[in-house]
Amino acid sequence: MTSPTRVRTLGAILYPEFELLDLYGPLEMFGCLGPELRIETVAQEAGPVRSAQGPESLARYGFADCPALDLLLLPGGIGTLAQLGNDALHEFLRTRARSAEVAMSVCSGSALFARAGLLDGRRATSNKIFFELARSQSEKVDWVEQARWVEDGPFVTASGVSAGTDMALGVIARLYGRSRAEAIATVTEYQWHTDAARDPFAAQLNQTHWLAAATGR
Amino acid sequence: MTSPTRVRTLGAILYPEFELLDLYGPLEMFGCLGPELRIETVAQEAGPVRSAQGPESLARYGFADCPALDLLLLPGGIGTLAQLGNDALHEFLRTRARSAEVAMSVCSGSALFARAGLLDGRRATSNKIFFELARSQSEKVDWVEQARWVEDGPFVTASGVSAGTDMALGVIARLYGRSRAEAIATVTEYQWHTDAARDPFAAQLNQTHWLAAATGR
């Protein structure tokens, strides 16, 4: 193609104890778009940010010097709990969501969007096992219990962890066309769950005992 | 449980232009095990390592000061090509694989294991689209074209990108029991492809045109 291509910038928002796959599942898929999309990492302060699983990722920008963002990606994770009280993050989300083409959250990330007041009057979802965490942030959100991901205007909220990868391909299909999303799924040998309404994990709503089963405690 | 639990250390090996999901899909699943498993990141030199998709991750250790590792995880990615000529990496892999309980690769990571001579006489697989890259590293490897992942002794090699996450749960089932792996899949809302022999992407063997379709070029 010889026509000039619009280059979008995706801002991946890091905070301490974020969930690895919430962030990196979507970034894998968006990263496969090639030069049409640039991925930048941002945290309250630039520098290393420890994930919930241990490994550290580098935030290239702080909130203060972060460039303009077309797309936002907000992961969840156990670190969400501390961020519910972080006004600086909420203000950053409010400011940046206003100018973003798409603002995405994964897992408990939607609890932070809700706490910042961004989802009032909108449909949204969250991870299944800790669904109440999201719901308790705002009664003005139409919380959808059964969904792999939910799109409402610029906001796209995914269910737990792995659902973010399916959501990312859904957003790629919307912005770049279905065939691009399918090609990326093929390259990454990913069986894309294309139906946002199909939710194999809805039966686990608020079944927090699964966490103990996973950690063996 | 009051019985003392053995704590394993997993070493995630980073190099420039590694594929994000090759690394972080498995680390998500292993990270959900809780205190029974510690994840450490290692690269030739400690410090920031840029991924193929752009974002940087931090290697906590260099090859020289890396602690003992029970499990190895070697991602693939476009950066594999440069590492095929990196003797220091091959020597690190040879030394560490010798003492590891399980040595895992994802995607083109198996080309690096093969180049280091570690897979001679063994069955192994690699990503589908660039399968020839792996095959061309050694004729003494029994390369399996159709497999989600392949286990042969301590070596476990996964097919492309997303297959690493299925492999990780397979290794978790082997080391910690099937119910732990299933609980982790539930917590992360991941539909685990449990059959290592089932390969939905085998038909794409060496179909490199998919990469152009993904990047839109």
From TrEMBL, chains A, B:
Pfam families per the UniProt record, alphabetical: DJ-1_PfpI
PANTHER family for the chain: ARAC-FAMILY TRANSCRIPTIONAL REGULATOR (PTHR43130), THIJ_PFPI FAMILY PROTEIN (AFU_ORTHOLOGUE AFUA_5G14240) (PTHR43130:SF15)
Gene3D superfamilies: 3.40.50.880
Name of the featured protein: DJ-1/PfpI family protein
Record-linked InterPro entries: Class_I_gatase-like, DJ-1/PfpI, INH-QAR
Domain DJ-1/PfpI: 14-172
Organism (species): Eiseniibacteriota bacterium
